[in-house]
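hi! just following up on the protien thing from before. the input was this:
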Amino acid sequence: VRLLDGPFKKAATLNSKVLLEYDADRLLAGYRKEAGLDEKAASYPNWDGLDGHVAGHYVSALALNTSSTVSPGSAERLLYMIAELKACAAANNAAGGWRTGYLGAVPGSAKIWPAFMTGNFKEFRSAWVPFYNIHKMMAGLRDAWLYTGNNDAQALFLGFCDWTIMITSQLSDTQMQEMLEVEQGGMNEVLADAFGMTADKKYLAAAKRFSHHLLLDAMAAGKDNLDNKHANTQVPKAIGFERIGELTDDRQYSDAGRFFWNTVVSNRTLAFGGNSRREFFPSAAASTDFITDVEGPETCNSYNMLKLTEDLFRMEPLAKYADYYERTLYNHILSTQHPLHGGYVYFTPVRPRHYRVYSAPNQAMWCCVGSGMENHSKYGQFIYTHTSDSLFVNLFIASTLDWANQKIGLKQETSFPESGQSKIIITEGSGSFTILVRYPAWIADGKMDIRINGKSFAHAGKPSSYIPVKRNWKKGDVLTFTLPMTTRIEHLPDQPSYIAFMRGPILLAARSAGDSLPGLVADGSRWGHIAHGERLPVESSPIILDDDLDNIADRLKSVNNSALTFEPSGIKMLNAVPVTLEPFYRIHDSRYIMYWLALDKNGYQSYIDSLGRIEQQRLQLEKQTVDVVAPGEQQPEADHFIKQENSNTGNQSNEFWRSAANGGFFSYQLSTGGLTDLSLVVRYWGAEWGNRKFELYIDEEKLLTIDNTGKWNQSAFRQEKYEIPASMLRGKEKIRIRFQSVPGNTAGAVYNLRLIKKQ
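and the predicted 3d structure came back as:
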């Protein structure tokens, strides 16, 4: 498959250029170091300095790019990477013992693996997800073998698979399951691939050993246990389940992979195809996090969901898989490459009027940089699929196909989604076979017209199906089909008051005012992948007010008869500003709105009432307040004579906070007004990470121990009230309130604390 002019060819061409801007020797530095060889260049800082994971993605991307484009630069760079990795493997093999076959860059490998193989996981757990990192290079070597036929890559890949079997051979099944609680990437998938490519059953046994039963058993039973689980830890496991099921006809594994896809796509996927927030699957109760948080769906999740989709389609070629693939490819994957400098995106915030940040070559080394390298190298991978005598047209992307088995050449001419038509032209060969054209879910029943050489072709196709067109095809035959798009709304999962506008499979979004985009092109800092700029108030965003919300998309007005650009001029809005709706994949270097709060008359009144209740509660709290501190703010803390040790401050949702870590503390002096009937009200953020156990003291007397670890799992502020015994207050005009962290934990963060009179 070769891409023709259009947005995907443009993106792939840019990506080919960007790949060659990375310094191969820096990517390889960790591998040489762990193999005991001198480094040719300093390793990258930031994420890649920890593990070398990007180098594995890089090898995959070079292999994909070599096979899908005329790119001699990628081919030459791939050969260099393989030669250098071969030298590292040779050094490890010469050392022998646990190193035989090893080709990892995990820092401190010599400490981790000898202990690991005996069942001692202490060093393994203290490292950063070692098997996740190892999987990336195993997958890279597999891809170099699979896509380019490189014999050295084959030998290195199978040697690494053998090392994996050896290093886990002494572990019991129970120990394996314990180890799999640590993120491991797609280890079961890559080992299953080794079995599929060699027929050696030792790799199948290893793939099953690397399958995590906490997820496998639940998914196979049709039980969604994904709430509050790290999303991109789970998706690769499901890919492995599917591969094992595909290669063995084991229903447990295939059922697990299929159910995982169904529940994620049906219940946890947003309009642009992404899923998760802050890297975790939220519960239904926490779905407001999509609107309030800035760490939206992660690109790696969609990268892996598309891999799972390809695999499931291979087992069962259903149009629903291609429908999802199309949505995610256009709206998420294509949108995560900067169209000028080619940087990659990590998080795509859903929060109205926020923005995204991009990587720069040789700077940020996030996981989504690695998967991004691959994403924009394989746009041709799923346009067509085939059986021995049938060709599936899955995507409407301008391209050519050399179908070698049938000695057929064809070309797809289309400017979709700018236009609503595509044309398949037989350019070489002839023969009897079936072309199956996807009838997308977004085309209304009876509205897809198909013509062969200009003559109408009768079909009984329905939305989300394939229309078979069987005939004796010959050179010059033309198959034309229409793709009429309509505009509709889709609701945010579990938050039906928020809607997105869709045009066919394309998400329409609006640029939003706001010139301050700090960190737009990220540096190499640890948290540079997060858009840390000001969070504009959600309640000040445009709000749609309409009593006929189901038909509201019909009132969008096309701009200059464009198929993809609209104005909401026929829609009433609160906080209205001039906006233009356009494909989300076009929006870069800007704040944006993809989901809109949409209310009818009753919903609007409830919204106003809720604001009123919040204001009433705020006024009541102020009326009861005896003294109040705003942690993290200089003057309020000085006014309350702060004391602190090992304490930090920061800002979240435009509010300052203070915390103390690992035995540290912070304290304030508050006035009691001589009262003894007081309570302490403390404001927390409901989505804090890590261990949050701490002690609360009044003067030097402990009031209670608090454990907020995983307590709310919701991106919203939470207020807790603690009763203070009169004995702690009697005879005191002032008291000192101290938040004392316990070892290995963080106290807070605290956003506000106040003494209030009991009602």
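Residues 625-757 form a domain with the Jelly Rolls fold (CATH 2.60.120.260).
The mean pLDDT is 95.
cheers
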